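User: Show me an example of a complex going from sequences to structure tokens.

Assistant: Sure. Here are the input components:
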Amino acid sequence: MFTDKLIERIVELRNHSIVGIDPHYSIIPDYIKRDLIRDNGDNIETKTEILYTFSREIIDNTYDIVPAVKPQIAFFERYGSWGLRALERVCSYAKRKGLFVIVDVKRGDIGSTCEAYSQYYLGDEEGSLSCDAITINPYLGKDSIDPFIEKCIKGEKGIFVLAKTSNKSSVDIQDKICDNKKIYEHVAELIAQLGKGYEGERGYNSIGAVVGGTFKEEGEKLRKTMKNSYFLVPGYGAQGGKAQDLTGYFNDDGLGSVINSSRGIIGAYKSEKYRADYDERSFGAAARRAAIDMRDDINRYLREAGKIAW
Amino acid sequence: MFTDKLIERIVELRNHSIVGIDPHYSIIPDYIKRDLIRDNGDNIETKTEILYTFSREIIDNTYDIVPAVKPQIAFFERYGSWGLRALERVCSYAKRKGLFVIVDVKRGDIGSTCEAYSQYYLGDEEGSLSCDAITINPYLGKDSIDPFIEKCIKGEKGIFVLAKTSNKSSVDIQDKICDNKKIYEHVAELIAQLGKGYEGERGYNSIGAVVGGTFKEEGEKLRKTMKNSYFLVPGYGAQGGKAQDLTGYFNDDGLGSVINSSRGIIGAYKSEKYRADYDERSFGAAARRAAIDMRDDINRYLREAGKIAW
């Protein structure tokens, strides 16, 4: 069962944080681009080799610290079939390193169409990405989520359905109030209902939720609505989410959320906090340092709140 | 300007209908699979060659009848990087045949991430799919749509934002009522607002809406909310949408919607209506027949309603 296994690794590493692999071209050190373009020419195959090389280095420097990575597919899909090939290699590499792989795809469509997405992302046939979990967009309603549920129950996979996202415009639709509840709260109730009865050994099911780390009060409230759902929490660091505001995203057992940071980790070498100690050649070491600091930052506040899982 | 050019072709062909290329493996004639597997082996490369061969045949039989095709990416993405390569070939082939290509991707993410999607789907750099328009999911709000708008204004591209989808569960989120309006009506207002001021020669802008063809009254109401937005209407045929219920999706100028049919066209050879006259070897001819019948069916009711664009 996906969430049981994920929790086991979280406890083993004493780490609730995960690394978002969002290889925007501008975040990748110049020397990687220069060397690969010099050797292989300036073409799309080289561009995607650059994505892979960068992502692999991030994985090499963090795989023994974090339980999971979350590649953002858009930065690979940007380069179409070539980019998707790079993503497939990144996911395969991460799995070989013992990492759980949550691919951020935010797919959502009518049922028969989602079945096709489900087969690629969570299936195990030849050519499937077969990652551990993906993110899902709920705008099309329950029948757009159903095709993924079976893979969660029988296939040891997980999904994280967007409830409340971390961006400013998330209020446009998600915060509209209907029957005294915001839309994201209705989505949260749907998520809780879909997962009901599928809890594993630690009390959590594999029908999780995306809950942005930039809205403290909302996060705490949603924790109560979906007490058996695991949260994937984006928005820590570069987007403004702070560890002290995230303790409410956890249950009293010290579990319930994985906190994602993307730019804050993979672009640490460029950041104000780390750039004095690292340069572009040591971006991997900077990412490792940032990942350790993030782990400690979150654990510190959870300890203060008395929410200890180990 | 995308919508002006699309309308020009609609009027030229006297056809408001488009063909949805949803090559679910089970809809593809056995002989195509058998022949290609015999010649090339049963592997993922062959599977995607099957998708391409089938799609090309559909295009060959309909390109001079319909203004546009709408490939559903999920059925290609199902086979990952190989599948996306097949989609790239399908889109390229369709464009060479003079068809507008609207790729049904329903993407939606935070702004910086959508910029990457925008570059691949609507950009014109090496390796970009560079299709004419895509579908967009609005759950993350305005800042998730913005990155596509510039491509619509300066790049001669279009988007169709999901307002009210054709599936049954669309009610789960989209029909929730807030401030006396359903969520899809709020989305419709956002779409109208985003497109305002960008109207082309025929009075339409390129910030369009997806409005399911299975909800007659909703469609008519949304037509009024978004009078300058072009609609992409799924749900005709196999999903239950009928031409007589769609006249309200058009403005008095006889324009305003393209009606999509997928299974009803590409799987016509298997359908009750056409299977007596066609077999799997003549699936292309059956698709052509079904496309002509659909064109005439829609035009007949529009004529009766006095909504004539030519």
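The lines above are the inputs; the final block is the predicted structure for all two components together. Residues 14 and 310 of chain A are 7 Å apart (CA to CA).
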